[in-house]
Amino acid sequence: MYSIEFSQTAHKQLEKLESQAQGRIISALERCRIRPYPHVQRIVGSSFFRLRAGHYRAIMDIREDRLMIFVIEIGHRRDIYRKV
What's the pTM? Predict the structure, then answer.
């Protein structure tokens, strides 16, 4: 089972969201802990992955050597891809 770690940026972004969106994102991340690849898609032109949670996206890196999912950023789908 993979562990989940948040960057400082992602943690702050998650805390700023409303509680319903927070719950949806955390629930989606928990589903990914056993086998992440069926739930995520690779971002075109990047080594990172995206996870859909309603209108929000989590940009993450999956580190196989440590069985870790590292969440880099969380944001609304209209804004998140401009940053990556």
Answer: 0.89
